[in-house]
């Protein structure tokens, strides 16, 4: 009698599930919206053959051949030539700041040397801390050179074009000369790990109080929103420190990732990043109506943190709107900080733009979270 | 302001609200509510489920913002000075709302910190001893029985020695013995000058109160000193005794003019608002085998039964109908 499966009971469970699904609009909307949003967002944004990489140029010669080379680089769409610089230290600084992916140096007397047949070399320095970002451009270089030659050497010196290339390029890969992907991924992972745990733990913080009914007792006391927020966030800052320590030990032992930069700047950046994520989680917590929704919102946020932050795919390779979106994501800035510090030996002065961005995001998120947090049950 | 509590004490009332109104969506939950609670009173707040008791209490302690009306609680404005009120009021929620995953001591300690109590450790230890839980201080609050949870909740909302206690159905789901102990505690607090506003739908609790406000469909219908309630309700009561109370009860229930029959030990109390009709109905039984009928004054019990049976749950019904008389 009881051994048989009952269609009626199965239908009862089925109907109940549909009813509950219909009542939980937010979850339902998420399930529908998720594939659409993610497809549109990531389908268009992600590009593993990035073009328009920010390029600075040191023009020590302005002859027609040099200009032909510059325009060939530009026409290839891989290189986005932004401004001229002077001197190796300026190039070094631009790399550490993250202003440039490439620095092109046309040597002095380039034009003369080409005509003499000395076959001079153009120096192309690449920020190889992200091998994916530079790979495509570097591979395209030989084609670019031939097109420049074709353009620049008509008439009198046309015969040069027929022989071996009248000039060449040397590529210097900085920071990660061997192009080890691990060096790029591992530092970024810290940002992702911290984002995930920090946002999730605080996202359920207020909702859990609401679900358990303890929120009523809490707000019946004279406690202020900022006190609740600070009190709920601080313990997890410590958790974030522990995670970071564990991360560095493992990164060092297993992956042998270097740490070349200044510790002070890194620690400030780390604190900012942890707090901004916790504040974000707290904000989700004030919006979500139950723990399930809080988790969904965290997940919804972590996806772009992985895909639009430059963690997996080169930031410079994304279209403008996606870069704008990525700039609003805290992980983007922390990934820059940690890569600069670990791979490029950056110190505090090199990290300012990222620090400012993180601080700005934190201010906005905190303000909205405190505004959203209600001292009443209305 | 001088229209203080029903007893008209000289001191300003502890709670003085006028025309409080609250709506959730298009549902009017509290409608033009007035109340004045004198210092040191135990004020009973009665009404069926969904009548707006919890909402009213929450507005009084600053947990909800009223949509209309004004009010003062302990002399502070309930809208603009909510944090002053929160610091001086002990509010015990209907549902147990302390941290189940904290121990008894940790919960009390948390609350004591919230109110920035001086000599916190001492205060908590004292509260634990008063509670009789000193030896179980490390037990998790979630593992306590209903009665103990309720006592812990009371201790927690008393930890800052509030002048006013707002208790929202504090004894729901608690056994009678624990309820009696609880009320003894409330009484002794009131004797020490604490004002208590307690919502309930237990009749035996209502009789413990000095004053009663009865609310249904978000409107206050009756407000007065407990001893005046029977006359306000306007009920007449006869006491009937006889050998077969069951048969008598059945006979009375169908009789015209008899609005309620309640058994008190070995006698029945039959009550109704139309005294002549009621008298006729009970007199008809008088003189049967061993049946005795006598008129008696209507007690608080009969008045409450009358009030409570007059109104069912207030959740779904249309407020324009079915307002109990």
Automatic annotation (TrEMBL), chain A:
<protein>
    <submittedName>
        <fullName>ABC transporter permease</fullName>
    </submittedName>
</protein>
<dbReference type="GO" id="GO:0140359">
    <property type="term" value="F:ABC-type transporter activity"/>
</dbReference>
<feature type="transmembrane region" description="Helical">
    <location>
        <begin position="185"/>
        <end position="207"/>
    </location>
</feature>
<keyword id="KW-0472">Membrane</keyword>
<keyword id="KW-0812">Transmembrane</keyword>
<feature type="domain" description="ABC transmembrane type-2">
    <location>
        <begin position="147"/>
        <end position="376"/>
    </location>
</feature>
<keyword id="KW-1003">Cell membrane</keyword>
<feature type="transmembrane region" description="Helical">
    <location>
        <begin position="351"/>
        <end position="371"/>
    </location>
</feature>
<dbReference type="InterPro" id="IPR051449">
    <property type="entry name" value="ABC-2_transporter_component"/>
</dbReference>
<keyword id="KW-1133">Transmembrane helix</keyword>
<feature type="transmembrane region" description="Helical">
    <location>
        <begin position="233"/>
        <end position="255"/>
    </location>
</feature>
<dbReference type="InterPro" id="IPR013525">
    <property type="entry name" value="ABC2_TM"/>
</dbReference>
<feature type="transmembrane region" description="Helical">
    <location>
        <begin position="297"/>
        <end position="316"/>
    </location>
</feature>
<keyword id="KW-0813">Transport</keyword>
<feature type="transmembrane region" description="Helical">
    <location>
        <begin position="261"/>
        <end position="285"/>
    </location>
</feature>
<feature type="transmembrane region" description="Helical">
    <location>
        <begin position="26"/>
        <end position="46"/>
    </location>
</feature>
<dbReference type="GO" id="GO:0005886">
    <property type="term" value="C:plasma membrane"/>
</dbReference>
<comment type="similarity">
    <text>Belongs to the ABC-2 integral membrane protein family.</text>
</comment>
<dbReference type="Pfam" id="PF12698">
    <property type="entry name" value="ABC2_membrane_3"/>
</dbReference>
<dbReference type="InterPro" id="IPR047817">
    <property type="entry name" value="ABC2_TM_bact-type"/>
</dbReference>
UniProtKB/TrEMBL annotation, chain B:
<dbReference type="InterPro" id="IPR003593">
    <property type="entry name" value="AAA+_ATPase"/>
</dbReference>
<dbReference type="InterPro" id="IPR027417">
    <property type="entry name" value="P-loop_NTPase"/>
</dbReference>
<dbReference type="GO" id="GO:0016887">
    <property type="term" value="F:ATP hydrolysis activity"/>
</dbReference>
<keyword id="KW-0547">Nucleotide-binding</keyword>
<dbReference type="GO" id="GO:0005524">
    <property type="term" value="F:ATP binding"/>
</dbReference>
<dbReference type="InterPro" id="IPR017871">
    <property type="entry name" value="ABC_transporter-like_CS"/>
</dbReference>
<keyword id="KW-0067">ATP-binding</keyword>
<feature type="domain" description="ABC transporter">
    <location>
        <begin position="15"/>
        <end position="242"/>
    </location>
</feature>
<dbReference type="InterPro" id="IPR003439">
    <property type="entry name" value="ABC_transporter-like_ATP-bd"/>
</dbReference>
<protein>
    <submittedName>
        <fullName>ABC transporter ATP-binding protein</fullName>
    </submittedName>
</protein>
<dbReference type="Pfam" id="PF00005">
    <property type="entry name" value="ABC_tran"/>
</dbReference>
């Amino acid at each position: 009698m009881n051994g048989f499966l009952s269609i009626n009971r199965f239908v009862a469970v089925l109907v109940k599930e549909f009813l509950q699904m219909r009542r939980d609009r937010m979850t339902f909307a998420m399930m529908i919206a998720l594939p659409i949003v993610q497809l549109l967002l990531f389908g268009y944004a992600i590009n593993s053959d990035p073009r328009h990489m920010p390029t600075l140029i040191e023009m020590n010669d302005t002859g027609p051949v040099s200009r032909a080379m510059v325009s060939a680089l530009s026409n290839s769409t891989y290189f986005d030539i932004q401004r001229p610089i002077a001197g190796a230290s300026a190039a070094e600084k631009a790399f550490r700041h993250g202003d440039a992916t490439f620095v092109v140096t046309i040597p002095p007397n380039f034009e003369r040397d080409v005509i003499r047949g000395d076959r001079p070399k153009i120096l192309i320095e690449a920020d190889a801390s992200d091998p994916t970002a530079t790979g495509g451009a570097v591979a395209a270089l030989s084609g670019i050179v031939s097109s420049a030659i074709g353009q620049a050497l008509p008439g009198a010196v046309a015969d040069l074009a027929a022989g071996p290339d009248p000039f060449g390029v040397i590529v210097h890969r900085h920071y990660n000369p061997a192009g080890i992907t691990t060096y790029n991924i591992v530092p970024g992972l810290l940002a992702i790990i911290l984002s995930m745990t920090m946002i999730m733990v605080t996202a359920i913080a207020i909702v859990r109080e609401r679900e358990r009914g303890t929120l009523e007792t809490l707000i019946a006391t004279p406690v202020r929103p900022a006190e609740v927020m600070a009190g709920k966030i601080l313990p997890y800052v410590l958790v974030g420190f522990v995670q970071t320590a564990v991360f560095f030990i493992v990164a060092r032992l297993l992956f042998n990732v270097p740490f070349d930069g200044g510790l002070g700047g890194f620690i400030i950046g780390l604190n900012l990043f942890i707090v901004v994520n916790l504040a974000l989680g707290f904000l989700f917590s004030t919006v979500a109506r139950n723990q399930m929704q809080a988790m969904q919102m965290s997940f919804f946020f972590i996806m772009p943190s992985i895909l639009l932050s430059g963690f997996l795919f080169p930031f410079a390779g994304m279209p403008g709107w996606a870069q704008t979106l990525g700039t609003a994501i805290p992980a983007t800035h922390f990934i820059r900080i940690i890569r600069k510090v670990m791979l490029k030996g950056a110190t505090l002065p090199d990290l300012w733009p990222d620090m400012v961005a993180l601080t700005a995001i934190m201010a906005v998120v905190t303000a909205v979270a405190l505004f959203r947090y209600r001292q009443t049950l209305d | 302001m001088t229209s203080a509590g029903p007893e008209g004490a000289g001191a300003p009332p502890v709670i003085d609200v006028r025309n409080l109104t609250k709506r959730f969506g298009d549902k009017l939950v509290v409608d033009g509510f007035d109340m004045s609670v004198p210092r040191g009173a135990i004020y009973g707040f009665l009404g069926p489920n969904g009548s707006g008791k919890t909402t009213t209490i929450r507005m009084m302690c600053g947990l909800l913002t009223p949509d209309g009306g004004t009010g003062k609680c302990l002399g502070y404005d309930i809208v603009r000075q909510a944090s002053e009120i929160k610091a001086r009021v002990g509010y015990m929620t209907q549902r147990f709302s302390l941290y189940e995953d904290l121990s008894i001591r940790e919960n009390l300690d948390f609350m004591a910190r919230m109110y920035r109590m001086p000599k916190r450790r001492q205060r908590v230890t004292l509260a634990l001893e008063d509670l009789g839980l000193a030896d179980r201080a490390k037990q998790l609050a979630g593992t306590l029985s209903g009665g103990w949870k309720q006592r812990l909740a009371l201790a927690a909302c008393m930890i800052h020695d509030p002048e006013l206690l707002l208790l929202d159905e504090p004894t729901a789901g608690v056994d009678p013995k624990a309820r009696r102990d609880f009320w003894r505690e409330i009484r002794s607090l009131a004797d020490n000058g604490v004002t208590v506003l307690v919502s309930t739908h237990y009749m035996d609790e209502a009789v413990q109160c000095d004053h009663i406000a009865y609310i249904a469909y978000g409107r206050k219908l009756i407000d007065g000193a407990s001893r005046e309630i029977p006359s306000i309700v306007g009920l007449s009561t006869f006491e009937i005794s006889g050998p077969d109370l069951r048969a008598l009860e059945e006979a009375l229930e169908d009789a015209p003019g008899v609005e309620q029959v309640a058994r008190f030990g070995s006698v029945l109390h039959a009550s109704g608002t139309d005294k002549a009709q009621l008298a006729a109905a009970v007199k008809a039984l008088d003189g049967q085998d061993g049946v005795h009928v006598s008129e008696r004054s209507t007690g608080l019990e009969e008045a409450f039964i009358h009030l409570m049976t007059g109104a069912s749950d207030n959740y779904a019904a249309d407020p324009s109908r079915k307002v109990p008389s």
